[in-house]
## 1
Amino acid sequence: MHSRKQRGLNILMNVLLIIYAVFALFPLLWMVLISFKSDTEVFTTTFIFHPTLSNYREVLLRSDYLRYIIDSVIVSGGAVLVSIIVGVPAAYALARYNFPRKEELAFQILSYKFAPEILVVLPLFMIYQKLGLYDSYLGLIWVYQLISLPLLIWVVRGYFEDISVEIEYAAQVDGYSWYQIFFKMLVPLIKPGLVSSALLAFIFAWNCFTFPLILSSNKVYPVTVAIMKYLGTDSAHYGQLAVASTVSALPAMIFALCIQKHLVRGLSFGAVKG
Amino acid sequence: MARIQLENISKAFGKVQALDGISLDVKDKEFFVLFGPAGAGKTTILNCIAGIVMPEEGVVKFDDQIMNLTDSAHRNVAMVFENYALYPQMTVYDNMASALRSKLYKADESVIKERIQWAAKIMKMENLLERLPSQLSNGQKQRVAMGRALVRNPNVFLMDEPLAHLDAKLRNSMRTELKEMQANLGSTCIYVTHDFMEAMALGDRIAIIKEGKIVQIGNGDAIYYMPCNEFTAQLMGDPEINLIEAEITGTGNPYSVQFRIKDEQIVLELPEDNGVYAKIRELGLKKIHVGIRPQNVKYSFEPKEGYFKASVYSYESIGNKSVIVADCGDVFHNQLRMIAPNGLNVAIDSDVYIHLQLDHAIFFDPESRKYIVRYDEAAYIALAAAQEER
């Protein structure tokens, strides 16, 4: 009796999950389908159509799409790199040292993520204009720190806090200098957290739309903004738009799949129990 | 190997004064034990010697060389941490090799291997070398931590309760092993413990630490037989020493002690002892605390001449012997502890008759709680001196 009830519940749960999965994945599927349709078929067919690669040819070979991808890689990758260089020492300091208003500082860093991007982007636009950071790689990398840095600092800080400080003492007594201890003893221990948070930060930066839309124009053209190009004022090339979206979603998806295991583990438990 | 000196070391963590004017002189090749209750500052002393903690005042010297400004890497000390502090990402072998692979203490891989095999054998963990720390039990981790220190050839070994998490049998064998090894290596060793048996068995000298201050330094016999105050007397010895509040009566021919056991006045004659009698006369003592070790308290379940009556509070086995705790009056915490054999049929609350062997008593001042005098003092001073020479 009990087990039958259990099974019923299981089936119900799975059905619900499948419905949710279809609901969640359908837009992606739809996007991929459209990318193979010619402009004439976009509105007239659903699943049966004449597949064509012309959209792909148009986007990948006859436009600057690859340049946009490279811009995105530079900006997102650069942002994550800066975050690692700045964030790991910051996380270490927040985990290890006691200084006045430490928790407030940590919370402030986290709070950068709270404000909607649209809220800060207009003042930033004016500041960037004045500073000459508008439409530059550096400018975007800088502003992306609002997205990637808090995430990285908070995850890595948790990892540092889990490493007992005696391990550092032991390494000191064993004759290692601070830098050797950091790279030989600590970095291997925070690696799971560092890798997962860095990749997550990369995906967030890659997907960011508001900042590049407003803070850059011609010289730096991340792919999220570039997609808009295929949506003209007079005509909408939905097929090409779909190709651009599909291709731009690929890196994030590939990364997410590759690190799926680390992602869940790395972010959920910071367990480095000695 | 080196002589380690601490001069007037003080250290505070925030408002807590962890160390308050600690001065120690640990001789070369000495096995020196720091003994005291939890939170006394023992670990902080080790950290000061290792250079992990900077004292606010005072000087740390290795072989007359001031080390305050030398960082811990360059002090060449080997330390066993209480929470093991093993590197979780490395195997046991790599953990043990880590010091000998650092730039400062570099050794050939063949030498490292030899040292590790040697240390692993002593620590009985040859079969653990390929494991990761997460796959070890606490006792095994502790042995690895010990092994990691032993492979080195440092100025001083600093050991922070290195046997605390081992099972009793292994602890006893390690204790013996450790003492012998230290003698063979000819190394200076500073050893922290809160187990008085360990302190007595291992220490050439013992320092009793309380609230960041040194209470007494001396060899095991000196501290056990002539504790400088009641705190030390209570700390050394299990079951704890009995302390009785008593009054001294009599004219000196002889003197007696008088105290109350459950509304009954007990008057016991103090056995004649030149030292004790002279001290009582000299200080004109009236009130006194009489300390008597449990093994010097005799009991009987029948009324006997020279025995006074009390009732049994508890009877529990502590291994090869048992402790009877009797309910009494003027005694500290109302309880008198005595050693008895195992397997007695003792009913709780039954009558027990007690005899104090006052000729083993230690006397303390009731105000300052400091040691005044004990029976056969001269003999015990000689005993302690003899241990010093060994």
## 2
Amino acid sequence: MTQSHRIPGRGQIDRARPVRFRFDGTLYEGFQGDTLASALLANGVRLMARSFKYHRPRGVMTAGAEDPSALVEVIEGNQQTPNVRASVQEIYEGLEARSQNRMGPLSFDLLAVNDRLSPFFSAGFYYKTFMWPRAFWERIYEPAIRRAAGLGSLSGHHDEGVYEKAWAHCDLLVIGSGPTGLIAALTAARAGADVILAEDDARMGGRLLSDGGEIDGQPARDWAAGVLTELAGLRNVRLMPRTAVTGAYDDGTFGALERVGLHRAPDAELPRECFWRIHARRAILAAGALERPIAHPDNDRPGVMMASGLHSYVSRWGVNPGRVVLFSNNDSGLATARALTAQGIEVAAYVDPREIPVTEDFPVYAGAQVTGTRGRLGLKTVEVRHKGGTSQIEARTLGLAGGWNPTLHLTCHMNGRPDWSDAIAAFVPRDGMVPGLAAAGAARGVFSTAGCLADGVAVAAEALNALGFKTPGAKIPQAEDAPYAIAPLWAVDAGGRAWLDFANDVTTKDVKLAAQEGYASVEHMKRYTTQGMAPDQGKTSNVAALAVLAEATGREIPQTGTTTFRPPFVPVSIAAMGAGGRGQGFAPKRLLTSDAKTRAMGAPMIEAGLWYRPSYFPRAGETTWREACDREVTMVREAVGVCDVSTLGKIDVQGADAGRFLDLVYTNAMSTLAVGRARYGLMLREDGMVMDDGTCARLGEGQFLITTTTAAAGLVMRHMDFVHQAFCADWDVRFISVTESWAQFAVAGPKARAVLAAVCTLPDLPFMGCAPVSVGGVAGRVFRISFSGELGYEVAVPTRYGAALFDRLLAAAEAEGGGAYGMEALNVLRVEKGFLTHAEIHGRVTADDVGLGKMVSAKKDCIGKPASQRPGLTEAGREQLVGLMPVDRGDSLSAGAHLFNQHDAPTRENDQGYVTSVAPSATLGMWLGLGFLKDGRARHGEVIRLEDGLRGKKVRVRVVDPVFFDPDGGRMRG
Amino acid sequence: MADLKPTVPLAGLNEAIGRARLAALDPGRVTSVAPWPGRNVDAALAPLGLHFPPPGTVIAAQGARIAWAGRQLAFLIGAEPPAALAGVAALTDQSDGWVWVHLSGADASAVLARLTPLDLRPSAFAVGTVARTVINHMQALILRGAEDGFEIAVFASMAGTLHHELTEAMRLVAARARI
């Protein structure tokens, strides 16, 4: 707990607030403001991880979101988050982090044997080696390889953490809060635009926090603090720190991931992360640039990092890096060497392949290269090849400065391709790659602070102009304006293994091998070597890898091209994107007015089109659903049952042309219905298949009430809207859903009249009649319709009276020896009658297939009629609806089973049809089935075989008419 | 026989979490008004001091309001439809079909921003406007009665989910405010 490598007094951390945390079980102390990486470095811990494939010891390489190496697991009780970047995770009191992808302790990983075997594990090795025998791949090779090569592990529990999703809207989204982002946001804010400034880091300021020099004569970070104070005080500005913009999508929409609570001790109510969808009229990408390494032998040891990362750890977090060697091919690396020296850091060597003058306060090796390193678990010496020979230089930290890649990823999210700039040896975005998004500052290759400030103002002014805001002429602050010179050096040619992609363990050799084996396209190389496919998506390695590929294939970099950057820019947890959607959060729950009473009666509920409906109402002594179901079926057939049918879709259709409109959407005529009468109807889709069925009641001369099936209510409404708007917008017809306005109950059975008489004065209705009725003083409606085949009514009242009416009906039914029935009984009752549900009208059947061909009126046209008359839909051999009864009355049937002729083998060619619904008929004392059979209507009486391969069921069944019970309908008409 | 007793979902709700409050709201009689093609309903609405609202707007007078609710559709809220309206528009009682709540407080917008993609900035969704939008997976009608006050309606059967979604979002926003 000594923080042995902290420079006294240095760094922007809160030394008054020590924070204790654990890494691999060891207790350490850091300060508020530390990341896990900075705190570990301050404690002298450089070894933080094992590499993906070879299990090489690794440390942190950057101070930002792009880090390829230092991935850890964070443990919070049951919550275990893998692949957390130590350079991003802030420490908090009690933080527990663990290294991952190892077997045994981090310092002695048994899987490090992979490194010794590395000659066998080059790119493409798996594909070539583990091909045979074929069956071994899935069962033996792949699990073994996955165990050895991989990332963090999951807890195996559901992620029950709190996550959040939210939307935000603004005129201008500024992505990144370095000098460019700050000045752009300030310019826009002062002009009055609604601005969102999003920054991935916990603190705003970007590079200004680490190495910004001076702006307007004050330290850059003080200037940044001043700007942030002004922005924070403006109502039209929203500052979003800890928020990584992850993707650019259509129409100015951006995805962003905010770390809301991940930097604090777990809190049961605070979201861990929030996934934002930000809609911006304009956006500025001011995400800066990412420094890239140079590939030299053994450039991956703990202690090797980007020069910029090193600079940040020293300036921002006061980490003492020990003796430092810098290996740089550009002026930015040289500037870092100077800055570190000025801060008292011992720069043991500055190594630069360029012939630069040797006039510094530290040893400069010009025209030299780093050719190797030593130190098993942490850097000890750096080998430098220079004009005088080769030297071993003792160093604890090696900073690599291979140049800068503009962070242009978001500009490529709509498949735009960047341009190569020779001046900075990097890709730069083109204008207009994402509509409304403009890159500014370092994100488009402007690298001096003065240049960034000027560019930020200019790009903001352009955006504001497009948005119609006036921009007051702003003074651009004074800052450093050093030119940036670079002599590209991608890889040192000195044998050994030189890493390009630290995250996926890809070396220069792998890339050359890919080229040699013919994977010369950059996209092929990527897939062959897996370069850029780790969680860091190759942020530090991408350009260097394709430069090595270009050299290996004798091409220039622009001809080689780059792989495609896609969202997300940083890893996004699925839990954040799915926030609120776990379990029942997946969809709204629709509850009936009878719900409370139903549950109080112990009914298990099942979901149907978001509605929760009772399966059955168990009574004392009943131990299975079958007992309850059989009782309820018999109850309806012999006495009376009550069922909540409010879930059926109800649409109020009005107007002088309402009948004409319904004639168009229904296959049968509705305009001829008399007031006070209802009719069963069928709707077709435009392709001629049955869409839905239901009843249509004429309430008045110009008013109809139609019903739909529960699950198709929305579909039918949409269909009717389409037909109305597309084909007859000028007709005198209006309709609106009233599904939710009415609570409706079926009362079915020989004693139905007695039950209804207990709640209203029942009008004398013929079968398929309807009338207004007063129910307990409430204006209701009663329909004489039946889905059970019994004498049946449906009575409806405004929804608020539903609960009371259900209670009333239930009491009346019980007085008559009846009671409530659920979905199971409802299904048995309708199967006994051969009535349809969407199990039968499943979208691939015509009216004729289900035996309702005659309902397609010959006298008029309707939606879907012409298409339903296509040859394929009318010819012989189609599967038609039939009833199925077991030959042996004791056999049970199963839905989903297929039908075969008695002596045919159960093969696809012999398939005769399939079973859609089955029900244990209490009335007939056997299982009944409905299904579709080739030319089924002509085969009544035939015995065929029902075969269910999944359940191992083979049953001889007789083909019969689908109406099993009371075929002439005397009971419901009586 | 005794009269049926009404049950209204979320009746009596009044819950404050953080800087937001969620309360039950009884809008009174709600009638959908869909003018027949080519008919002007303004004269029929005049006795209430109302006229047919342009898209996205709410017109209020003498306690009654009429809110745009879709293509050629408005909801007359808090008043019986005048008799003359029946001749010029299709009228359907929607009083029971929807459950209404009132969300208010300094964080009301922040709470709603967790559940609806609607741009809630006053410049885009001003006081006196209405939108047909969604509350998470539920289609909804949202009226802005004040800078920090929203009336929200969803299908009555989804009352429980509406309450759950809103109070969850209120809790999340309140938890952020604590830190």
